[in-house]
Amino acid sequence: MQYSHSRVESFKGCPYKYKLRYIDKLKTIPTQDANNALICGNTIHTGAEKNLKAALEFYKSNYYVLTDLHINEIIKFEYLIPKLKELLLDINIYSQEYLINTKRFKGIVDLIVKNDDGTVDVFDFKYSNAIEHYMESPQLHIYKYFMEQKGFKVRKLGFIFIPKISIRQKKEEDLYKFRKRLLQELKASEIQIAEVLYNPNKVIEFMDSIIDTTEVKEYKKNPTNLCSWCEYEEYCLKEIDYMLLPKNERRERKIDTNPDLWIYADSYVGKSTFIDQYDDLLFLNTDGNTDNTTSPVIRIMDKVWWEGRIQKKKFAWEFFIETVEELEKKDNDFKRICIDLVEDLYEHCRLYTYDKLGVEHEQDAGFGKGWDMVRTEYLSAIKRLKNLGYQIIYISKEVVKEINLKNGAKLTAINPNINDKVANVLAGTVDLTVRAFVKDEDRFLQLEKKENVFGGGRFNFKVKKIPLDMKEFIKALEEAQEGVKTYSKMAEEEQEPNKEEKPTRRRSKKEETKVEDKKKEEVKETTLEEVNEPKEEPTEEPKEDKPIEETKGEKPKRRRRRKADEE
Predict the structure, then answer these.
(1) Distance between CA 403 and CA 412 in Å, rounded?
(2) Domain PD-(D/E)XK endonuclease-like: where (predicted)?
(3) What whole-number distance in Å separates Cα of residue 497 and Cα of residue 557?
(4) Which of 16, 31, 131, 451 has the fewest CB atoms within 10 Å, measured from its CB?
């Protein structure tokens, strides 16, 4: 078995991590953090081996969306990589990314420099400020040992440390000032070359560690401060396994009678009582109207109290966050969570953010910053709740607006009582958004998608509206998903024997002749009366008809085609 420096270091740092990565071979989805150590380190390596353009393309390709934080990292690369390339211009490079591949060891040497006396120097790039830590690393000692076995004469070992600037943007600092300060920090930094004296004992320790990996019987966890940098942290410490990549298999689609839902209507239509027909439901109520519902409820509201002469206050938003944290523990038997009302919760989030920023309105925090912080705080918490696996239900009141069309006409639009940007995101977190309404004292649920009514979903309902009743709603859901195609191994296995029961065979010439005669007879049954011929217009030239095969009776007369040359 081949061993590498990183593999052995992984075992020494945490045997359980070694087991997950190298024995269980569990893969995780890379984090989208702008300063992801692995992605940033590989970006520096790409820049050193190729150029700045290739490095930036590699960095950007690892992210779904680029934000200001990613641009900040790009600014660092745009300064540091040219500095590194400038340093490499003055040396005689023998090889970059050189692969050591022996029976027992595998490793990649970042940089090999050729000397005039035939010897070489070995260097490794480190995008880090932890110089003392790497100076004790056995990595370069191991490289020298195995390179000399391949015939190299290694004279010098060393690390090339690229400074890692980790300053953060201050609250009172806008982006322009922060990036200006970032450039100042970059200009004040320097790339350092640190020589490492060869120590054969480091190689012996490495070999001993290889033996330890083969003799271990129990891979114990080793919790340290470094766990926050480990890709298996969520799986190891919190036992969350959804971050692991799934098997490449089709998931079976099933009829969903418990979709994530957003229902809105005018006051006193019966939104909450309709949702209350669900079992195992927890209401997170914001308006205090709970008399007509029987499900358990948590009031989301501000709390004010006095301690002596000092007034204390706890924001409603803080109670909501605490509730989400409690739901994350899964120490309950609820299956559904309903936020009633979702727009009130947004207002609670606004007030909490105002207090946090020390402002009275979003615009007081700077251009766009206040609005963005409120929406980010709110939607992040909503998505956090959504990811817990409960059926999520939102309740809202409706608001009626008039839209002026280009021709001067007016269109009445009906929407949930929350701003459009937040509404569009919330609609994307549920499977169905519907409106309830009253007509002639009867209550209905509108399933039809209308241009002037906010709503829609992932279901193809067969009816336009239904009574506001849970049984009718579930019936409509089942009918809308009738004939849903499912993918499963069992279905495929059942179909395969049927294919084998009907083997195909080649027709004989006699059978082929019979089939052709039969086709000709079917064609001959078509008569001229069944063909709609275009009527001739005196001002237009008749188009040439497509040829029609002869019938059993008379032959069709051919029309003469006028030649354009005669005109």
Answers:
(1) 6
(2) 3-236
(3) 55
(4) 451
Which residue shows structure tokens 């269980």? 24
CA distance 500 to 516: 28
With contact defined as beta carbons under 8 Å apart, do 303 and 318 qualify? Answer: no
Cα angle for residues 305, 307, 313 (degrees, 5° grid): 35
Reported CATH class of domain 261-480: alpha beta
Residue 181: φ, ψ to 5°:
-70, -35
SS (H, E, C) 257-321: CCCCEEEEECCCCCHHHHHCCCCCEEEEECCCCCCCCCCCEEECCCEEEEECCEEEEECHHHHHH
pLDDT tens-place string over residues 172-214: 889 899 999 999 999 999 999 999 999 999 999 999 999 998 8
231, 28 Cβ separation under 8 angstroms: yes
Helical axes 369-386 vs 316-328, angle rounded to 10°:
30
Most confidently predicted of 265-269, 309-313, 512-516: 265-269
Q: Which residue has the tokens 């150029």?
A: 51
Give 539-567 pLDDT, tens digit per residue. 444 444 444 444 444 444 555 444 444 44
Provide the residue ranges of all domains of the chain, joining segments of one domain with +. 5-237, 261-480
Topology of domain 5-237, per CATH?
A: Lambda Exonuclease; Chain A (3.90.320)
CB 115 within 8 A of CB 152: no
DSSP string, 341-366: -HHHHHHHHHHHHHHHHT-SSGGGGS
- Closest CA relative to residue 465, chosen from 428, 435, 492: 435
Cis peptide before 341 (omega within 30 of 0): yes
